[in-house]
Amino acid sequence: MSSMGPIGIFDSGYGGLTVLKEIVRKLPAYDYVYLGDNARAPYGNRSYDTVYRYTLQCVKWFFDMGCPLVILACNTASAKALRTIQQNDLPKINPDNRVLGVIRPTTEIIGDITRSGAVGILATTGTVQSRSYEIEIKKFFPRLTVIQEACPMWAPLVENNEHQGPGADYFIKKHLDNIFEKEKYIDTLLLACTHYPLLLNKIVDHSPPGVRIVAQGEIVADSLAVYLKDHPEIEKRCARHERLAFYTTDSVEDFNNHGGIFFGQPVQAQHLDL
Ligand code: DGL
After folding, report:
1. Which domain covers residue 135, as residue numbers?
2. From 29, 76, 90, 169, which residue has the greatest number of CB atoms within 10 Å?
3. What pLDDT is stored for residue 1 in this prediction?
4. What residue owns the CA closest to ligand 1's atom 7?
5. Residue of 11, 151, 157 to mutate, ligand 1, most atoms within 8 A of C-beta
6. Based on the structure, what is the number of domains in the chain?
7. Residue 13 CA to ligand 1 centre (angstroms)
8. Same domain for 198 and 124
């Protein structure tokens, strides 16, 4: 019989904290352990093989920490590593545990938000190249027009705490101009990278009026609540002491200084060598 443990939340760096924040708000009773692989972030421009290797290594660490369930709160990892881990690795490493991503919950509901039927996906180069959003959205909403735009500088701006500066305005405007040039009828923009909510104000400023900007945190939290309800065999293995633990593969000091901006309250991390 498998023992109880925290729910694992993973990101390449800080972005997943925007998701954890909403999950804790929605499901405060559970224990959570967060891992930011800051030493190897960003993942956005890395190859399939590298993102898969890094993500699998982190998933195994979560399992060693006793997590029955791990959420890849990183679109790049969800796009490039999740399926292989679910199908090939999980049955061998720990068939009783589960690993979930952030793409599916968003694609299930995005068609209910748009009126024009044209949805813009703003994401890392890796997520865009995988075409995961296009493919998944078409399964639920075959008639939607899905326009993608890779924004390779956005996550690094956030990771480096430059997201409020004038450099951020330049790169945000550039990619928003690009996506609306590709399709002017886009009325819904999905922030398909968990770093991007930190850029929200500037994204609103540089988007045409009336465009809906959708972040994933709340959507993923709602979907996790439904998942736990529908999977009592996993839910009963999720510890409930309201404990939070944070780990980073890079500097603890940097994580503590910077992570609070994403999480909305102070964080105290521990270092992990991978
Ligand atoms: N936060 C990650 C995502 O959702 C990516 C950032 C990166 O490491 O490039 O895609």
Report:
1. 104-215
2. 76
3. 46
4. 42
5. 11
6. 2
7. 7
8. yes
Among the candidates 177, 198, 215, a domain finishes at: 215
Active-site annotation holds for 238: no
In a shared domain, residues 160 and 203: yes
Kindly list the protein residues whose Cβ atom lies closer than 6 A to any atom of ligand 1.
11-13, 15, 41-44, 74-76, 124, 127, 155, 193-195
- The whole-number mean pLDDT for each consecutive block of 10 residues of the chain, a chain of 274 residues, reads 87 96 98 97 93 98 98 96 97 97 96 97 95 96 97 92 92 98 98 95 96 97 98 98 98 95 96 95
Q: What is the pTM of this model?
A: 0.95
Instruction: Looking at the structure, tell me whether residues 114 and 243 fall in a common domain.
Output: no
- Please indicate, yes or no, whether residues 64 and 130 belong to a single structural domain of this protein: no
Would 2 be classed as within a structural domain?
no
β-strand partners of 118:
145
- Do 64 and 34 fall into the same domain? yes
Active-site residue flag, 193: yes
Asked if 6 contacts 238 with a C-beta cutoff of 8 angstroms, the reply is yes
Q: Based on C-alpha coordinates, what's the Rg of the chain?
A: 18
Residues 6+ apart with CB under 8 A from 156: 42
| 1 domain residue, yes or no | no
Looking at ligand 1, which residue's alpha carbon is closest to its atom 8? 42
Position 2 scores a pLDDT of 62
**Which member of 58, 67, 151, 193 is catalytic?**
193
**pLDDT the model gives residue 161:** 86
